[in-house]
Amino acid sequence: MLDNKPHPIMARWPAQSPDKIQLYSYPTPNGVKASIMLEETSLPYEPHLVTLSDADVKSPEFLSLNPNNKIPAIIDPNGPDGKPLALFESGAILLYLAEKSGKLLGQSAADKHRITQWLMFQMGGVGPMFGQLGFFYKFAGSEIEDPRPRERYVNEAKRLLNVVNTQLEGKDWIAGDYSIADIALAPWLNALDFYGAKEVVGWDGYANVVAYVDRFMQRPAVQRGKAIPSRA
């Protein structure tokens, strides 16, 4: 609820527990950022499945929460100063939940900024570039005969993987201790498997990245969060 009135999105996805954080999402690399974070922090929440179909993400109800028609989005009925807060954009949601819970944003101001820079690296680099790779390698773009779009995004994916692989040398996590930067980054690295693109980018040659994703996926909160909301 916002300002003690039901938010328009609740007409389509009613809240059974309106005192909890309401999560509107789908288990994509961006979507699971929010659910994994909620599981890691143990903040009470209620998930709602919003499919990627236009009928859902372009519905008036969803657009009332996110005019950019992308998952995930949340409503926190107990936001700053006790007032409800609606948020979209996965990176903004991660930052908000980290500050709300006091978890996974480092121990100092310097830690927070180092973590945030790697969050921005994922948001501005890995996510968009890997998404384009998926489009041109697996989805509709794969039908384009001109090889240059595929080559561009394969090469950019390799470059980004090398950045991550180098940063992880001697480290378990991308910015020191486990943080929201890892929750943002690892699901997108793992998406190369879904795209069937591991071989073309030379995945096995990035030993630090391979171990990092395996380490991330073994976390109990990740195991739970990666399947929320349920598609059943």
UniProtKB/TrEMBL annotation:
Family: Belongs to the GST superfamily.
Stretches assigned to the GST N-terminal domain: 18-105
Source superkingdom: Bacteria
Record organism: Ruegeria atlantica
Ranges for domain GST C-terminal: 108-232
SUPFAM superfamilies, per the entry: GST C-terminal domain-like, Thioredoxin-like
Entries under PROSITE patterns matching the protein: GST_CTER, GST_NTER
Listed PANTHER family: DISULFIDE-BOND OXIDOREDUCTASE YFCG (PTHR44051:SF19), GLUTATHIONE S-TRANSFERASE-RELATED (PTHR44051)
Protein name as annotated: Glutathione S-transferase
